[in-house]
Amino acid sequence: MKKQQIRAWNIIIFGFIIAFVVGFFINFKVAKSKPESEDKSMEEILRMLRSIQKKTMSIPKPTQNCHFASSEGRKCHQEDRVTCDLNLKIPLFGHNGLEEVKVGAVAVFDGHFGSIASEMASHIFLYKFMLKLNNSIEQSYNLKELLKSSLVTTIIDIDAEFSEHYSKRHRYSGSTAVVALIYNNHVLVANVGNSKAFVCSQKNISREAGAASLAGLHAEELTRDHNVHRLDERARIEASEGVLKIDHDFVPLFMSHVPTTRAIGVVTWKRFGVIANPEMTDWRSLTSKDEFLVVASDGIFESLAPQKVCDFLNEVEDHSDPSLLAQQLIQKAYLEGSSDNLLVVLVPLGSAVSGSPGCVEVVEKPYL
């Protein structure tokens, strides 16, 4: 009995000792942490927020809320790719604290010498773009500039990643890139190569009784092709000792191929002046007269100029199904004589700005 009492007292004394040691270290840690500054606390909050976003940010799925059509045309394989989401939700700091803003993104990649580059770019573009925005959360007070800079670095990073991993096996594979961002009733476009983006807008053709009458759609191009016809592009190629050859139609060709002077990939041509740096527009305000944003690969424009595309959209009476319009447009381009792959995205600007056109993918065999 006496031994049991001694053992009980030993346990109690040992418990007091443990409690004292734990309490001492807790108080020491709290006392040490009190001098932390408010700036340090804000940095910790931002770091924690980034961590939460990275764990919870879902990988964007391609072709969300978009209307497009795609066809291999007269080629054996389809090398064009698209990724699109008009309802990207981006958590960013604004003047009122943490806010969720909505941004639309439409990207078309026209592959050449295979689809390796266009396939890779289309699969990782949205994820990398969102990651760039996520990593710059504290810089978001000027959101338009943040979106623009993130878009530029995303395209350049995709080119660098492709060049690093595929340079030995797919030296000539490459892709154009044209990307349109829609935010707060404005559109911004980045372009690499010879795909196109343009807006079809109502145009004024006459004035009667002091009021303008509207008829037809006018094509306002938001991109300029990168080829050796442009003096600035040609000068860069010649300065890098790129070889220009004139074909039988007196068309200058770069390295005996189609004169695309900017591209993702084509690693072998980089030393001759080919770059992947996108040419950017400014943010363009969208108005009530703007009806469609069109983003397409160059196969469409072998047979249809941008104005012809807008004319076609104007002639069609029923705009209730933009995916059907996209399908009809690539069929028209094919029948008019295009020999290339065909891909077009149509964004009805009224519904795109307010938010929710349906997501429909159309992969259509051309009519023979």
How does this model look, in words?
By secondary structure, this protein is of the alpha+beta class. It has helices spanning 2-33, 38-56, 116-135, 143-166, 231-239, 306-315, 322-335, 349-354, and strands at residues 67-71, 80-94, 97-112, 174-175, 177-183, 186-192, 196-208, 211-221, 244-246, 252-254, 264-265, 279-280, 284-285, 290-296, 342-348, 360-363. Strand 5 and strand 6 form a beta hairpin. Helix 3 (116-135) packs across helix 4 (143-166). The chain crosses the membrane at residues 7-28. This is PPM-type phosphatase domain-containing protein. Keywords: Membrane, Transmembrane, Transmembrane helix. Residues 65-349 form the PPM-type phosphatase domain. It holds the Pfam family PP2C.
Number of helices: 8
Q: How would the global form be characterised?
A: globular
| Helix/strand structural class | alpha+beta
Helix content: 25-40%
Largest sheet: 8 strands, antiparallel
What share of the residues does DSSP label as strand, in percent? Answer: 25-35%
SSE string: HHEEEHHEEEEEHEEEEEEHHEHE
What's the number of extended β-strand segments?
16
Mean pLDDT, to the nearest integer, reads: 77
Distance between the termini: 104 Å
Unreliable segments (pLDDT under 50, ≥5 consecutive)? 24-42, 48-59, 247-251, 351-368
Overall radius of gyration: 28 Å
Domain PPM-type phosphatase: 65-349
Protein name: PPM-type phosphatase domain-containing protein
Transmembrane segments: 7-28
Keywords: Membrane, Transmembrane, Transmembrane helix
